[in-house]
């Protein structure tokens, strides 16, 4: 089973080579991102293993199918970047890793909250410059604060447990309430109510047509002035120019992003020698109360090992005619 892993980094190579390789699977690591320009590299590979910023739109899938590919094995949980109806039309199966470590992502969301609140990014730079002053570094106690969780599946529920441990009040919004989150004392509300009552809002829902730009100019106006917004879900959940306006007016007090709508052209690459062409991201990065990480919430040893193991298992079971973790259009 010839398998090409697009967008593979050194840490992918280590985790896949460290996992038990099922018989008959041959791995080729490819640093390039999958796109129309690079799809030819997959020729004669039955399996294309892709990550979140690979292009799996209809034209790319058509080229992959024409080159002999039959399975798209996603190394991610999210599959919003795959044109599933095109895959179905072309006879391409799609499998994913439904859960690898909800802790990795939930803990990163908490890391962003703590860093923004206690302004660790500013303190770190200050002390390194020999500036030991404290002005501008005042934070707030998390205990007793109200945290709104949008999407209470595996990651949202894990995040809820951690925030309950801090002594926060929990509010939640999800079309399918999770009894385990209710058991923590969380109250399910509609989205405008959640936004109006929360001091911290964290997004943990998938990107779908319903959730695109869930946070926009209107929903930002529902929030408490100075609220904190954390997005480790998908970039398209928020209208980024609207966030910039809310930061400028002070309506949004803190912003932690691990995902960005236009990240595909930027994230996972060292572009430090190049002028940043994305003016929206450039503006975001000027705010002292904004932290952007480059889609690293998943990046723990445990999550990488689980991604490799499940992906190899997905490929082997598909090859044995018993596909698992299939994504349906
Ligand atoms: P999950 O499927 O366990 O939970 C998602 C929850 O969101 C479900 O309870 C669902 O009912 C709810 N939901 C769906 N549409 C909604 C909407 N419009 N509003 C509110 N809730 C809605 O998924 P899981 O594993 O918790 O992952 C959540 C998302 O986190 C993924 O879809 C992915 O986009 C993102 N993610 C980000 C990572 C990162 O490294 N930054 C890594 C892994 C996942």
Automatic annotation (TrEMBL):
Signal peptide: none annotated. Residues 110-297 form the D-isomer specific 2-hydroxyacid dehydrogenase NAD-binding domain. Keywords: NAD, Oxidoreductase. InterPro entries: D-isomer_2_OHA_DH_cat_dom (IPR006139), D-isomer_DH_CS (IPR029753), D-isomer_DH_CS1 (IPR029752), D-isomer_DH_NAD-bd (IPR006140), D-LDH-like (IPR058205), NAD(P)-bd_dom_sf (IPR036291). PROSITE patterns: D_2_HYDROXYACID_DH_1, D_2_HYDROXYACID_DH_2, D_2_HYDROXYACID_DH_3. GO terms for molecular function: D-lactate dehydrogenase (NAD+) activity; NAD binding. Its EC number is 1.1.1.28. Residues 10-327 form the D-isomer specific 2-hydroxyacid dehydrogenase catalytic domain. It is an enzyme of class 1 (oxidoreductase). Belongs to the D-isomer specific 2-hydroxyacid dehydrogenase family. This is 2-hydroxyacid dehydrogenase.
